[in-house]
Amino acid sequence: MLAIIIPYYKLVYFEETLQSLASQIDKRFKVYIGDDASPEPPLALLEKYKGQFDFVYHRFEANLGGTSLTQQWERCITLSANQEWLMILGDDDYLDIEVVASWHKNYDTFNTKSSVVRFATKIVNQKSGKISEAYLQPKREKATDSYFRKLKGLTRSSLSEYVFSKESFLSKGFSNYPLAWHSDDKAWIDFSENKPIYSINEAIVFVRISSSSITGKLDNEDVKNGVSIQFLKDLILKKSKAFEKAQLIELLLEYERAIKKSRKLNLKEWLFLMPFYLKYFKLTSFLKYCRRFLISIFNL
After folding, report:
1. What is the pTM of this model?
2. Which of the residues 1, 20, 35, 283 has the least number of beta carbons within 10 Å of its own beta carbon?
3. How far is CA 217 from CA 151, 227, 275, in A?
């Protein structure tokens, strides 16, 4: 069975989330709601949906998401029982009626062959009221290729549209980045365990962008950029072998760009990059790196 984990904090859009779960045409799932000491407990709303689908509600006495969102995800996961597959659904996102049914329909195709499954998505822009066209994905794709397409602006990705095996989560865990920014990107590379991500394009997860969501907020850009720098460095250090040569060189450039959004690279950062440009040597890229390095250090 599938466990749908909801780290709950905001009430404003939560009924749409619950209604989408109650409307699933296949009820072979169980929901675990972890209330992060919210000032808006959803008890009255949950009473309304009692009996419409199987759920467990637990209120944590101390707020954790304010300091570590990934640790809040993880303690919500501990609420789940013996389900082997997990989805972490945002409390402002929602599913079309066939998400669970399509997951079971495709189960025999991806089980044992993939540890990460994703659904097609549409973006709900709360400010404009518009819903995007569907983002469809390759049926099977390396996790590194998927992230690289996102990096190049060719697709999008966020937490709610993914289902992952509990075994892979227990083995790897989430990277505890501030705001959980890029924690999901890193998870899919880690959790996939060199197996392809399997995509289900016939069902849609609706991902909401609003002023109350981390993605929609504009007052945390410095924090996000600092996390991006660390995330890219982690990929370069720990996952470089998983990327194609051209992709790795692009990651090195993106690491530079992320730092340059706020300041110049220091000598230590330039020297960090050098062994990778040598190991994944491409003459043009290496010469351009040397030129940027010399200009930056010696102000040529």
Report:
1. 0.94
2. 283
3. 20, 15, 37
For 34, the 3-state DSSP assignment is: strand
Q: Does residue 202 contact residue 104 with C-beta atoms inside 8 Å?
A: no
Above 80 in pLDDT, residue 213? Answer: no
The contacts of residue 191 (CB under 8 Å, 6+ apart) are 115, 116, 143, 164, 165, 168, 169, 172
Segment 95-140, tens digit of pLDDT:
999 999 999 999 999 999 999 999 999 999 988 889 999 999 999 9
- In sequence order, the β-bridge partners of residue 130 are 125
Q: Can you list the domains of the chain with their CATH numbers?
A: 2-209 (3.90.550.10), 221-298 (no CATH)
The predicted-structure confidence for 233-243, as pLDDT tens digits, reads as follows 999 999 999 99
b/e string for 41-61 if b means 16 or more Cβ within 10 A?
ebeeebeebeeebebebeebe
CA 12 to chain centre: 22
Are 64 and 71 spatial neighbours (Cβ–Cβ below 8 Å)? yes
CA dihedral 6, 12, 16, 18 (to 10 degrees): 40
